[in-house]
Fold each of these.
Amino acid sequence: MTPRPAGRGPEAREGATSGTEVPMDVHEAIATRRALRSLAPAEISDELIRDLAAHAGLAPSCANNQPWRFVFVAAPDRLEAMKSVFSAGNRWCHEASLMIAVVSRKEDDCVIRDRDYHLFDTGLAVAFLMLRATELGLIAHPVAGYSPDRTRDVLGIPAGFDIITIILVGRRAPEPNPTLSPEKLEAESRRPERLAFEEYAFLDRYGR
């Protein structure tokens, strides 16, 4: 499947369901993206799933190995089964309309001496997917608070694959999720602070 040009599909951002197209450039998608935890229901179609997968599949990878694999969970009974994989503090995850398990394995990508590339390359694909979801007016929140073993059992993921994250997809809810802790509620209200340029970007030599 060939992805549509950015912002040109019928789902493009909020308001697109009324037929109004609202393009979003890369900078705007990056600046708009938030890993919010208060999710409202979103319509999940086969077209949407294929769209997200196709955009993720355009990510670069070492030798074009494309090591990423995605398990899209949208059926109500499967979403119900997935609720058991999340930690107690992540009950907000249960509200997702789409859950995407992201997996990859070492042998499907470059291994150059002591450098394993599959995690890095899969992370690039996840970033592409999240930015496309943002462009479509969706929240796409990757989480770490889940049981890999239970996820493997529920989704039938073969041994040998690393379960890197689960991405929770939905619309932004108008009200905070009542299960959130005070700290998480505060994080919902404003974007968390980012490091200053000098703390992570150096010129010509590390630390300068």
Amino acid sequence: MSIELPGHVVIQRRDGRREVLLHRSMAVISDDKIEIKSARGTVVLPLIGLALAVGAGTLMASRGTGLPFWLLVGLLLFCLFMVPFSVMSLIGSIVGADVVIDAKKGSATWQQGYLGMGIGTRELVPFHKIDHLEVTIEGDQPDRWREETDSLRQFALTLVKKSGKRLTLAQVPVPAYGQADGMDRTLAVGNAVAALTGSAVVLPEGWELVEIDTATGDPVPAKKPKRRSSRPA
């Protein structure tokens, strides 16, 4: 199944898949699977943890006999905790996924994310139990005290089950002046998920789909319907 996505929010990957940047995460989209996983920048902290553990091990190996006993115990415990934590977090940042929508399996899966890695299933939703997808926005309503809107818009894509349970797929916070981009990214992922699951996307009140010229960024005028002749045959 070929999924059409707007080019101005999509990054083409070398492996042929496409990705849409979200909030500290990204949606990696192929024709039969969508993975919502941590952004590439999340590998920084695990690498720092590994570097600190290597430094602590080097210090114990080179100056172990000259260090106080309490410091050696502390460094050893630090290494025992930091090494597995950093390694699993690094693997999770590279190959793990928080949510997987798989057309071949016919289900959407939310992973547990233990120690930063998608291990085990927290929620499994077959496609036939999905009622609809919903895009929500926070921060666009005036404050009841000052009658002013927030300077930040929080977009969210939520999967709503037929039972009424709501599960968050993605979040996109943007400045108020960039809310159109936030909606485009959220809706791009929503349309991709809807294409795989066969569900519909519900937009917030006051929003409507408008065709945009990607070259200029301006809305494309709607074509006027041709006037039908009422002449008798």
Amino acid sequence: MEQVLSELLDSGCASPRVDLAGVRFMDTDGLLAVVRWRHQFRQNERNLEVISVNPLVRELFETAGHSDVLHGSEERLLPPPPFGQPITDCLATAEDWEIRSFSVAARLESCKVVRDRVCQMAARAPFSSAEQGEVKLAVGEAVANAVRHGCRERPSETVAVRCVATPEKLVVEISDAGPGFDPDAVAARSSDDGFACERGMGIGSMRHCVDELSFHFCGGTTVKLVKYVKT
């Protein structure tokens, strides 16, 4: 959430709304982060609006004396997430920006959940149906790799997804806590074998479907996909 709010502050978007409907638990660190960011927005003569608050989260804010942060927000009691649905979900919108961060269980069934959520955001941008299909394919490959190789299909682990949609591009980051790998070595092994290994084939598909593909290894593995809106 902090990264989401930092980007909205830097973007100059006025009065963003943070939807906490998918947040079923928050500790004091989370509360202080919201309060701190609200103060920073106010210092820049903007407001940070928090909406759709779970009663338990609301109680935390009220007990800590920060109920004013939730002024005007509706209260929403959420049932436990059904199987295959996101475990956590945070949505922030401002003007023509939309940022969503959520996590899913490390199961292959979660691939569809992530694809559907990302495609909902892609549909708001002027992408053609073919381009939306490319986004869907690339995201599915990235999540499948995270589940199979990063998490070893252990459902107790999670895959984190961060998606940013602007008028110019769609950025999707998919992270797992796995040890990482060498993308160049995977490509070389596929070439030496004369056919694409499973992971190498997935990386090749992602490169074909998006404009930028990068890998980051710091306390886990993050795959970053960028698709630009054609003008």
Amino acid sequence: MTRLVPLIVVLLGFGIAACGGDDDDDGSAPTKAEFAKDADKICQDTQKEIEKIGQGASSPDELGSALDKVIAASKNAASKLTDLERPDGAAGDTATKFAEGFESELNDQLIPALEKLKKAIQDKDAQAAQAAAADLQKLESTKSDKYARELGATACVGTA
């Protein structure tokens, strides 16, 4: 199981960045650049939080707990992202696709893959853990990543 620890630490920091933003509210919609800046700030903060979560975890229970914390942090970030004020026009449409896409990918793909990994770790099933890791790697480049790139929110793009 100790051979899986470095893999888990990498996975904990893997592409789970999400976004949110400032409360600057002068009554006008943010520009595309302002949205990207706000999104990047929360993505960076969330990424730092997630990277710290797995530090020192070595037992299956500790790794399972760390994965639960990653899921919670990711859900919190997705909530902040969906609450982020969107720009007007085409950039706003892209921002909506990005925010809603991230939340959907998180709930429909990433969380189930993390839960599968957690179960494999707790069951001390190295083969199942490797399969779960492979499932996670398939999620490295997503539609929400595409929209994040279009917006210029590069800190919100998973590692591809």
